Amino acid sequence: MKHGQRGFTLVEIAIVLVIIGLLLGGILKGQEMITQAKIKNVIADMTGISAAMYGYQDRYRALPGDDKNAGARWTIATTGNGDGIINGTYLSTTAGDESYMFWDNLRRAGFVSGVGSDQPFNAVSGKMGVQTGNGPAPGGAVSGVLGTPGTPPTVPIPSLILCSANLPDKIAISVDSQTDDGVGTSGTVRGMLQTTGPNPAVISATASIYTEDGVSTYVVCRTL
Question: Which of 11, 56, 69, 126 could disulfide-link 165, Cβ–Cβ 3.0 to 4.6 Å?
C-alpha cells in the first residue's frame, strides 16, 4: 500500500521563516553592536592619549618625546631637544625621532601601558601615532598652515596631531561625527584615505571626503 508524501503546511513554513528572520536580525544586530563598541574604543583611546600627554606636560613641563630632561630622569641615551615641537612622522621607528620617543616617555612616566617606543594599536588593529603638521590645525586651516584670506597659506603652524590608522569607512565617519563635524576635510578631526595598504608610514597632506563604500579605510587625525 502506497502512502502519499506529506508536505509542509503554510503554518510550518511561516514559523521557519520567522525563525530565520530572527536569526538574521540577531546576527545583524550583533555586528552593529561590535561596530559601535569599536567606535567607542577608538574614541576612548584617542581621548586617553590626549589626557596622558597633558598629564605628562603638567608634571614635567615638557612634551613627551621632546623632553630634554628625560635622559637624566630615566637614564636613557636619546632625548628630545626641548623646542616644544615633536619631530618625526606618526609611525616613525627611528630612535632619534621625538614622535618615536613620545611613547617611551609616556610609558616610563606611567601614563600609558606597554614597554618601549612601539606605537599602540587601536580597536581595529591599526597603529596610533603623533606628529607635527600635515593635518588639522587651529582655526580650521588646511594641512597645518595658516594664511590670510584670499592669499595662499604661507605661515606654518606647529599643530600636534594624533593619528589612528586602518579605520574602516563607517568607523572613521562615526569617530569624526562624534568628536567633530563629521566632515573629513574640515574641523579639528580630519580623514586621509589610505591608498598604500595598512598602516601607511606617511599620511597625506590633503584631507579626504569620506566615502562609505564598504572597502575604503582611513587614517583619522585629531588636533591635540
Answer: 126
- Cα dist from 91 to 117, 129, 140, 156, 214, whole Å: 10, 6, 24, 22, 25
Question: CA 171 to CA 46: how far, in whole Å?
Answer: 14
CATH number of the domain residue 121 falls in: 3.30.1690
Task: Say if 62 falls within a structural domain.
Answer: yes
Residue 4 reports pLDDT greater than 70: no
Across all residues in the chain, what is the average pLDDT? 84
E-assigned strand segments in 38-103: none
120: which DSSP letter?
P
Rg (C-alpha) for the chain, rounded Å, is 24
> Residue 129: which domain range?
12-223
Tens digit of each residue's pLDDT (9 = 90 or more) over 127-161 = 999 999 875 444 443 344 333 344 443 444 458 99
Give the span between the Cα atoms of 109 and 105, in whole angstroms. Answer: 6
Q: In what order do the strands lie in the sheet with 189-193?
A: 128-132, 160-168, 217-223, 189-193
Using a 10 angstrom Cβ sphere, with 0-12 exposed, 13-18 middle and 19 or more buried, the burial of residue 144 is buried
**Domain for residue 3, yes or no?**
no
| Cell 616610563 belongs to residue | 108
List beta partners, residue 223: 161
